[in-house]
Amino acid sequence: xxxxxxxxxxxxxxxxxxxxxxILLDERRALxxxxxxxxxxxxxxxxxxxxxxxxxxxxxDLTVDGRFLNASAGIxxxxxxxxxxxxxxxxxxxxxxxxxxxxxxxQKKEETPKNQEVTEEDLAIDDDFLDDDVDDLDLDxxxxxxxxxxxxxxxxxxxxxxxxK
Length: 165
Prior knowledge:
This protein is mostly helical. It folds into 2 domains: 89 residues, Orthogonal Bundle (Arc Repressor Mutant, subunit A); 39 residues. Strands 1-3-2 form a 3-stranded antiparallel sheet. Strand 2 and strand 3 form a beta hairpin. Helix 3 crosses helix 4. The termini are far apart. The model has no long low-confidence stretch (mean pLDDT 75). Keywords: DNA-directed RNA polymerase, Nucleotidyltransferase, Transcription, Transferase. Belongs to the RpoE family.
């Protein structure tokens, strides 16, 4: 049934998505979102204020409804118009492969010379870079904690071995 065949009362009762579906069927082509929304709102008899109020809900419903497809930037059509292969091509274009020449140039930049001499200056550490708190650490205390842990672990292991026998 065409949109033109509906009475004013029938159009007011129909949902905006149903009207959008009918509009796309009548047009037989995908439409820009704003154009589709304007036609739908006009059929519903919305004022400018009401159009502004319902646009977000319409977009959300259009996105969630499985009958519609965003074919390209802002262009909406019916999903049944597009074969699966065509949908994949339009929505996600495959990235182009880099040429071998560009790959080789990139590899040359990334490679470091194998015979490059390392100097003491290359290995020097800036003292300001180091944290001053490192000097305050008591490393002997850390060793004592490790030793205590090892002893506790060994005693628990011995107990479990005795229980297994």
